[in-house]
Amino acid sequence: MSEQKKDNAIQPGGWQDALPRPEYRAFERLLPETEWYEVYRIRPDTYALYEPGQFQEVICFLAVGEQRALLWDTGMGFAPVRPVVERLTDLPITVVNSHTHFDHVGGNWEFPQGFGWFSEEGVRAMAGADNARMSRALQGDSLAAPLPGGLTADRYVIHPFQLAFLDRTDPDSEQARAAGLVRSALAEQPGWEEALRPLFTGLAFDLGGRRMEVLRVHGHGPDSIMLLDLDRRMLFTGDLVYPAALYAHQVVDGEPVFEAYADTMARLRLLQGRVDDLCCSHNIPLCDAGLLGRVADLFDDIKAGRAVGRHYEGGLIRYQQPDFAIVTLGR
To answer: Which residues pair with 29 in a beta bridge?
Structure first.
């Protein structure tokens, strides 16, 4: 069996050919003069800040309530994100990170503090990343547009930032109240499937007329969370679910993530009847909730040996579906 280049399992050549993505025609574009970011209103009081100029095609989200707004991730850090979100809302902004991979924390330094889940990886991420590491994100055909503001590959860094860890923050503290962080008993209410209850953390962000439940999820990284906006039937998925290659090949703290990823997806599949929109952090901002089931089903097929994948260097296997893929280590 011939093997393909390892890099192509994650970053297929010619990825730019998919741009501009037609799905964005369905959304109202705002602030078209904004450098680097494309800004869209994807639902009432919910905005996507999309970075199509780099391979990650990362997306940050701004969820606006009556009393405060929540910024879900801060992107690559190529261009300032705070001035953009402050043009969308005058409310105080709470920054929450889905996890601490570099493409989600690049603008954290622009804010006094963000919130995330504790991990040793997250502690290290707070120190920032120098150019020797970050220049790799700009190698090869990683760019589809010139870098903004005169930035060059040899000057790209992730600045240090401050993060408060949700699992180590007292919800009754002044710090929590100022950010809208509250206790939640949603999972204790009747009607929830038992398999879903372990995902709930007992924490939520109250934005005033809008409540975002914090879910703890496993598979993409050691500190991944999701936000569930049950009233609006929206799930902010971070990097666990999106319409591109899902990284089930990683090893975290010495352990392959595949089994934890598959277990989490089996649980998340049960949310399909409770949410309509998945707010995904890469490529396309809104996906149908059925993607949860399709991803979970493919994990089941891989585990059972029913799925056929394409082999790449380094033992990687890519299982391609019409609207996503799962990348694993050889099993």
So the answer is: 40
